[in-house]
Amino acid sequence: MWKDNIPWSREIKNNMKMEFLNWFEELSSLKNLFVSRCFSHAISGQHGISIHTFCDASQFANAAAVFIRIEYADIHVNPLAAKLRVPPVTTTNIPRLELLAATVGARACTSVIRAHQRYQVVERLIMTEHKKNSHARLQMLLNVLREHYWILNARKTVRSVLSKCVICLRHAKRNVTTPSASLPENRIKDFAVFEITGFGLAGTLYLKGGSKEWICIYTCAVFRAVHFELFLSLTTEAFLQSFRRFIARRGRPSIVYCDNGGNFIGASNYFKSVNWPEIAQFSSMRRMQWLFNPPTASWRGGFWERLVGVIKHILRRVLGKAFLPYEEMITVLCNTESIINSREYIHASEKDSERIHLSHNSFWQDFRQIGVPDLDQVDEVVLN
Ligand SMILES: [Zn+2]
């Protein structure tokens, strides 16, 4: 009808009408057709089961049928699924139609297999075996099941069933959560800024001309203020020079936390060779206490590593891919230091704009202004 372009409203011709009426009469005989829908023998898995797919094509139609074959006392063959399609009007090539039918067959077969996997009885069987074998885990359960049954896509199916066992879920491991340890006393007491200091290396930079330099970060463990130094070489001598500069500008720390870096340990050993009783006789200088992080506990340096993240965040944006000369790099670093030290301790809400917020600078800088717009302007004029 469709090929002959017959509209819906027109009555069809005699031979076509007869064909349709015959087909319509045959429909009543469908009630005598019986298709078994229960395959409990197959589900018990104790018998040879195989799934067979047939497909064929002609110029009138392509079809596929999926059958199950069960060996149980006798051989039982039952249809499971069938598909029928009218071929496309434009395709007259038989091999092409055969290929289409094969595709239809493969799809029908896949859907049957999936339905089988979803079958609740299989799930119940797996769960029963799981409980029978003292809540056996995946691999053991697979082995036990394979002795008697063949489950399609077994690993995936068994895993999904196991995930529903309430008892196993209850005993499943949980992430270990430990309450975080309280901070050491010397980090919460009232000390002078930088009296308790932590330091580590914050990373490397390349200067104009290709020379390499290292940034060292000194952090106050109590007020979290920072101080940066540049090393041109990673040696104990270079570290001691920077440490001298730090003490000269920020004061002498009483406790120094640091990483396990070789040059730091070298510096500590230098200090060990100092005759402290002799020095103590002539000055009131206190001996500095050096606390090294154990080699496998770098997390203990978290309080300066966090600030290393902050400085990297700023430098990446300020420097980009630029290589600066040493002097300019020092300026950028001091600027960064000033920005980090001026950050506020608490979130400044818009509502309490009247209040003065505490920053790290508040503890040792009387002039709270940072930034040099006047110098920037001079720079601009010079560059122009
Ligand atoms: Zn279980």
Automatic annotation (TrEMBL):
Pfam families: Integrase_H2C2, Peptidase_A17. InterPro entries: Integrase_cat-core (IPR001584), Integrase_H2C2 (IPR041588), Retrotrans_Pao (IPR008042), RNaseH-like_sf (IPR012337), RNaseH_sf (IPR036397). Residues 180-362 form the Integrase catalytic domain. GO terms for molecular function: nucleic acid binding. One of its GO terms (biological process) is DNA integration. It comes from the Eukaryota. PANTHER family: PHD-TYPE DOMAIN-CONTAINING PROTEIN, PTHR47331:SF2. This is Integrase catalytic domain-containing protein. It comes from Araneus ventricosus.
